[in-house]
Amino acid sequence: VIELVGPKRFRGICSDNTGNTTKARNQVHEKYPWIQILPDACHRLGRLCGDICKMDCFKDVISNLRRTLKFFSKSTDAREHLRRKRAELGIRRGLVSIGKTRFASIYHAAASLIRCMPALRELCTSGTINITFSADLENLVKVLEPIGKSIECLESTHSTVSDVYLFWLACMASIHDIIVHDDSLETSVKEDIRQATNRRWIQMIEQAPCDVYYTGFFFDPRECRHQTEGIQPLISCQNIADTIYGRI
């Protein structure tokens, strides 16, 4: 494909880190040195979601989430009761299923269950549906939310290399705030989240084959415009990054 289109028309190649794709992209870079190797930002964020979802503290809540979604997917009567109650309460969107290979879909599914919780509570109270819900679901959504939203934004066709660094930085800052300021999670859980987040950040940013994401962010015209206006967001972002490196 590269030969057909023309090597000079390519500037980067992006893939995950499986053996075949890693070998192929390295061969492309050796043959065409100007084609940069770009780590897959969404894939790495998805893997971070997977790391968090595999933690022991979230196993029960994810299991309950799966059972709840399965119940509604199998019961036409339950779905209809929920649909009517959502319409009555003005809840526009319903439940979202969990994908088999996309860990971030657990966030969207959990968020959808929380969104529909007022309707579910009324149905349970009236005895129409018998369902058990764990309060830990909110903690799971809280941790996964910045990651899930970042993946959704970075999958846009309008995202740039600058956006990759910006959204990863935002994820790290958000998780840092949870670790420092949230008292609903145990210290051991926070430590596990910190280690998983650090590991993925290092793989994605610090050990990347090139610094294209950070460079793109630094030379982003939007950031340059802010600097000329005296806002200097790069300085504040760097302070956030320094805090993350030192504490998260």
Automatic annotation (TrEMBL):
This is Uncharacterized protein. It comes from Lentinus brumalis.
